[in-house]
Amino acid sequence: MNASTNINVKKKDILKKRSRKNILLQRLSRNKIAYVSLCFLILVHIIVFIGPLVWKVSPTGLQDAGALANWSLQHPMGTDDLGRDVFSRMLYGGRITLIVGLAAMLFALLIGTIIGACAGFFRGYVETVLMRFTEAMMAIPNFFFVLVALTVLGTSPVMVVIVIALSGWMEIARVVYGETLKWKEYEFVEAANASGATSIRILTKYIIPQIIPSIIVSGTLTIAAAILTESAISYLGMGIQPPTPTWGNMLQDSQQYIWTAPILGVLPGAAITIVVLAYNFLGDGLRDALDPRFVKK
Amino acid sequence: MLKFLINRFGQSIILLLIVTVITFFLINLAPGGPSSTMRMDASPEERQAMVEKLGLDQPVIVRYASWLKGAFSGDLGTSFTSNEPVVQRIAERLPYTIELTFFTIIISIIIGIPVGILSAIKRGSVPDHIINFFSVVGLSVPAFWLGLMLILLFSINLGWLPSSGVGARGTDFDLWGWISHLIMPVLILTTTILPNIVRFTRSSMLEVISQNYIRTIRAKGAKESIVIYIHALRNALIPIITIIGVLIPRLLSGAVITEAIFGWTGIGTLILEAARGRDYPLVMGITIVITIVVILCNLIVDIVYSRVDPRVKNV
């Protein structure tokens, strides 16, 4: 009696261990770089979001230490050309840069998933129109589109997010399109169809849940691209405008002081690079973990 | 082949039309329209005259139709800021961008394909990990940041290379002046597409190596070098042609930033000027010309691809 329940428990454990999420996490934890990146990103987000609650120096207020002060206990990273606390600006700037990246990613995922799923599911005219539109958007070099759109729509943070998302959803749409085409041929979708489920229900309850792993991979890589785009347009002076700090426009400000205070240029540049790197490593790690062909022995 | 060509050409035209619609309507979303960028002291009558002269009092559809009619006969309108024809302004700048991107593509291919193959055949080894690591680093470093660091090192610290400009052209042309101005911009632009080429080559090669016919050749006892270089490489190289087409838009995006860093007077700095001056006809013209370039490159890639790979003929 006892023995048989033991066996049952073990079976349950094994089944639980082999669930898709667990397999994914196991494979991811074997990829050291991706795992370290994940931990690092969690840490960065905690610092950037909790940090300003602890470090109460204003990012825009002028400090008594004066302009371009060296690092000290009051100002761990010194002050910038106008005498503002650099550490505080890094925290607030990071907050905005990361929020812009995340928000742009979410919005791009929304557009990409809807367009890709509809094109793959409905076929016919819908497919032709949506996929031609996607191709046309891909043919416009991303940065030209962003510059044109920002000129027209203005450079408020919300517009920056929208424009970056509008320029970056096409890859997601193509991935979702391909996956939808694949999954809609499966028997369980046919069964749902036969039992009278509506198209929208089949899409949202049966097909899209199967695509979520691929969407997560695309999303992770999209955040990296969005942060890079944001910093590049800020560098060109067409992004979120000062005094609101972002890592991109801090870098633009620092250019003229690269000799007298190189740290002003090094810090935001390094922060962007490391965070984008971590997102890219994480995205790659997730992709490998999800790819059945390249299982590590 | 002819049917394929006509088909692809027709598709390209449709694609181009969609792009013009997207850009035209996007630009005309602008609150106030171009007349809002006139001199601040312009009287309402002057403003009205400007609006009528530019045809802004007509519905968007009518303006789009007349713009399209002009575009078909090679007239993209007149630049607001310089009063020169848009076509002329673009024609002055485009050769510089083509020069920059041409050398970038050549260098990226020469470096990228062998590195990608090495990474694939030594899969899982130390060189493979190093190559993968640097590919991701290359994709992650902001180009403008890297550009600034290079200027610091080579122009300010060492004084070897000029930090901006395109060098003397025309009669005072000298070879070293030309090359020295090209080195850093090409280097920066290369980092934006090289990682993609390396990774694509690697996955294409891995795909081919895992196929049955490679296993058959190995089973017959062929030497590993023959398997890789004679049998696998030829098939692996075919899909790489397609990535060149995909990378062209990316390359042109990168050119905007690269040209801005190094003061390279190409199409990238032109669109920045146009965007800052709200020069809508110029912005529109540049977008269309750039899209035509992209679509033409894709068309050429498709044709080459269908010639090289007999399986894709009449798609």
UniProtKB/TrEMBL annotation, chain A:
First-listed, main subcellular location of the protein, grouped into a coarse class: membrane
Cellular component GO terms, alphabetical: plasma membrane
Organism: Oceanobacillus sojae
One Pfam family here: OppC_N
InterPro entries tied to this protein: BP-dependent_transpt_permease, MetI-like, MetI-like_sf, OppC_N
SUPFAM superfamilies (UniProt xref): MetI-like (SSF161098)
This protein's UniProt keywords: Cell membrane, Membrane, Transmembrane, Transmembrane helix, Transport
Entry annotated with the keyword Nucleus: no
Family annotation (CDD domains): TM_PBP2
Keyword Transport included in the entry's annotation: yes
Regions crossing the membrane: 33-55, 96-122, 143-169, 211-236, 257-282
Subcellular location: Cell membrane
Name this protein carries in UniProt: Peptide ABC transporter permease
One GO term (biological process): transmembrane transport
Domain ABC transmembrane type-1: 94-283
Taxon lineage: Bacteria, Bacillati, Bacillota, Bacilli, Bacillales
Protein family (similarity comment): Belongs to the binding-protein-dependent transport system permease family.
Topology term for the membrane: Multi-pass membrane protein
UniProtKB/TrEMBL annotation, chain B:
One GO BP: transmembrane transport
UniProt KW Membrane keyword: yes
This protein's UniProt keywords: Cell membrane, Membrane, Transmembrane, Transmembrane helix, Transport
Gene Ontology annotations for the cellular component aspect, listed alphabetically: plasma membrane
Entry's localization field: Cell membrane
Domain of life, source organism: Bacteria
Membrane topology summary: Multi-pass membrane protein
Chief place of localization: membrane
Residue span(s) of domain ABC transmembrane type-1: 94-301
Membrane-traversing stretches: 12-30, 100-121, 133-156, 176-198, 226-248, 254-275, 282-305
CDD domains (UniProt xref): TM_PBP2
Pfam families: BPD_transp_1 (PF00528), BPD_transp_1_N (PF19300)
Keyword Transport part of the UniProt annotation: yes
Similarity-based family: Belongs to the binding-protein-dependent transport system permease family.
PANTHER family the record matches: DIPEPTIDE TRANSPORT SYSTEM PERMEASE PROTEIN DPPB-RELATED (PTHR43163)
This protein's name: Peptide ABC transporter permease
